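As the work plan foresaw, the team has encoded backbone shapes as discrete tokens. One protein thus recorded appears below exactly as we store it.

:::
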Amino acid sequence: MPDLPLTGGCNCGGVRFEIDAPLTGASYCHCTRCQRRTGTGASAQGYPEPGALRITDAEDLLRAWSPPGGGWDKLFCSRCGSSLFSRPPGGGTDDMSVRLGTFDGDPGVRPQHRQFVAYAAAWEPIPQDGLPRHEESARS
């Protein structure tokens, strides 16, 4: 069990956040949008309880990109470009995911499944790690 609150932020230190409850889970996403957003084969994110995430500094630096054709909004720091969160279209901070790489320390969870594996990068094979795989969203 990690010490609470969990803290984290962007690369330049402008945007900071706290989460005052343990994360409910984590996953890897292999969708094309995550590949292009991160420049990697998959994105690792954790899931806070609704209402547990609070932006503590520089919320004004956050910008959101809404993917055409649907999908979760991607939130990033407008100063350094760090990818921080995702949220349902037009949503607030109640149902967000947080990039695991943005935490200051161990977030206390490990990815429990892989989703959108139908779109996995050909240049980075998915490891045989025993995690459940979902061709599309695990939330469907």
Residues 6-122 form a domain with the Metal Binding Protein, Guanine Nucleotide Exchange Factor; Chain A fold (CATH 2.170.150.70).
